[in-house]
Structure formats: structure tokens, C-alpha cells
Specification:
Blueprint: H1 2-14, E1 20-23, E2 34-36, H2 40-45, H3 52-59, E3 63-70, E4 75-85, E5 112-117, H4 120-126, E6 133-138, E7 146-153, H5 159-180
Parallel strand pairs: 3-7
Antiparallel strand pairs: 1-6, 2-5, 3-4, 4-5, 6-7
InterPro entries: B3_domain
Length: 181
């Protein structure tokens, strides 16, 4: 029975179209990067697919160039996957605020996180914000290093976003009508 349970759970995991998921918080979305805390899921589904040379570069605190394919918009972006010490992610203090003795970041200085940079163009284009869930999956093969990306969950839309959605639908309808003429 144990073998069957193990086999079934493994099969269920591999059938997941987005094996690495991340619910966005203010801590994840940085000025020009996406901070990814180290986790078993990220290592198993993303890092394990890198070739040995790329893993050595990443372990030596270097950057590895990968492509991100946005599965929702069919856009491809060249980005760098980087392993950084935790202090790189310390938030900037507000103007006039003095730095206290308390650490505002939950990691120690000898801990690390992964970063995908630049990520600002994806944040702006997809209007990414807190409480949204995004997913990544590895789709590359040697020598191509590619991650697929998708927005999996968006909380209920506020009035501003509803207006933008309506304007985009009207624009698309007009654009299609112009092509048909």
C-alpha cells in the first residue's frame, strides 16, 4: 500500500502544470527584481533542471541568464537568476527614519535568497501586486534555459482594475473590427 500511495502522490505532483508557486508579498516584489526565498520546491522543480555549469555559477554567487516565457501573453524576456546574500534585500528606510537596532528582514546576513532580475517589465506589464499567486515551471533543455511563467490567481478586482479591463476589451474589439475592414 505504501508503494501505491507514494506512486500516486508522485504522479499527482508531476501532473501539476505549475510545480513552483509563489504568493506575492511586498517582500517578494522588489524595485527591479523578484525575490524568491530558498525552498525545496524551487530547488526540486527549477534549480535541479539547470546544467552543472550553471549550478556552479549560481553557487558561486554569479548570475545565470535564463528566458522567461509568459504563458498568458506569449512574451519572452531575458533575465538573470541570481543567488544573493540576504542583506541585499533589506528594505530602504523611509525618508527621515533612523535605522534601529532591530533587523527588518527575517533572514540573517549569512542566509540568502534567489532573485530574478530585471523583473520590473513583467511586474508593470502584468500589473503584479501583493496577494496574487504566480507559477513557474521549467521548460528548457540544454543549452536553452527557460522558465514558463503564469499569473495563477488574482484577488477580486477593485474598481480601478475593472475600468482598465473594460477599456482593454473595448480597444481589442475596435482593433479586431479595424483588421476586418
Amino acid at each position: 500500500m505504501k508503494f501505491k500511495e507514494k506512486f500516486c502522490s508522485t504522479a499527482a505532483e508531476t501532473m501539476n502544470p505549475w510545480p513552483f508557486r509563489l504568493k506575492l508579498t511586498r517582500d517578494h516584489i522588489r524595485w527591479d527584481s523578484l525575490k524568491i526565498p530558498p525552498s525545496r520546491d524551487f530547488e526540486a522543480h527549477i534549480l535541479e533542471n539547470l546544467d552543472e555549469a550553471s549550478r556552479r555559477v549560481l553557487d558561486a554567487w554569479g548570475s545565470v541568464q535564463v528566458s522567461i516565457f509568459d504563458a498568458d501573453t506569449c512574451d519572452t524576456h531575458k533575465v538573470n537568476l541570481v543567488k544573493k546574500k540576504a542583506f541585499w534585500f533589506e528594505p530602504f528606510p523611509d525618508v527621515g527614519q533612523r535605522k534601529g537596532k532591530q533587523k527588518t528582514f527575517s533572514c540573517n546576513d549569512d542566509e540568502f535568497a534567489y532573485s530574478i532580475e530585471p523583473f520590473k517589465m513583467i511586474v508593470k506589464k502584468r500589473n503584479l501586486s501583493c496577494d496574487q499567486e504566480i507559477g513557474f515551471r521549467w521548460s528548457g533543455n540544454y543549452p536553452v534555459k527557460r522558465l514558463d511563467f503564469s499569473v495563477l490567481y488574482v484577488p477580486s478586482l477593485d474598481m480601478y482594475n475593472l475600468k482598465i479591463e473594460r477599456l482593454m476589451l473595448v480597444w481589442e474589439r475596435n482593433h479586431i473590427e479595424e483588421k476586418q475592414i
